[in-house]
Design brief:
mainly alpha, Neurolysin, domain 3
Length: 177
């Protein structure tokens, strides 16, 4: 991480109870760099899952998938809390810039063919796996979400869907101003 990233309160452990964001220390210019780092970290976490050479299992696919994206979740929660409660012009500009980036990142995860293949493989074995009900639900939920997001589409259809999602994210943000 760069020195700027190290001084970004969104990228450091919060000193507050329950890890709550320290909104007094967070400035608008912290958000986009924090999202950039969070997207990169999440991509690395997804790559680590898809690069596992072993056959897909609940433990090597769904468990790390469920744990992935924690930083992105924390940064997004902090930002969207501010954007919905105190949408200054500066925060609105950040939200407009962020919308297509968030859509592209979400598509990169949800439409990832190797991740989908691994989840579909575990899903196909579901009746033979003897999973706890909450683990079974996790497999079903991720499989359903990725399928509904378009992970099973061919590459041309995914490209078109990605265009549409990017455009919708921008239009939605503009409409919500």
């Amino acid at each position: 991480m760069t020195d700027a990233a190290l001084s970004n309160p969104l990228l450091a452990a919060s000193p507050l109870p329950y890890g709550l964001p320290d909104y007094r220390a967070i400035r608008p210019e912290h958000y986009l760099p924090a999202f950039t780092e969070a997207f990169a970290r999440h991509r690395r976490e997804i790559d680590a899952i898809t690069n596992v050479a072993a056959a897909p299992t609940f433990e090597n696919t769904l468990v790390p998938l469920e744990r992935s994206g924690e930083l992105l979740h924390d940064v997004a929660s902090a930002f969207y809390t501010v954007s919905s409660a105190d949408a200054t012009p500066e925060i609105q500009e950040i939200e407009e810039a962020l919308a297509p980036l968030m859509a592209a990142h979400t598509d990169a995860v949800q439409l990832n063919p190797e991740l989908y293949r691994r989840i579909a493989s575990v899903h196909a074995q579901l009746d033979d796996l003897n999973l706890a009900p909450e683990d079974r639900y996790l497999v079903e939920r991720h499989y359903r979400e990725m399928t509904h997001a378009g992970a099973g589409l061919d590459e041309a259809q995914k490209a078109r869907l990605t265009e549409i999602n990017g455009r919708l994210s921008t239009l939605t943000t503009t409409f919500e101003k």
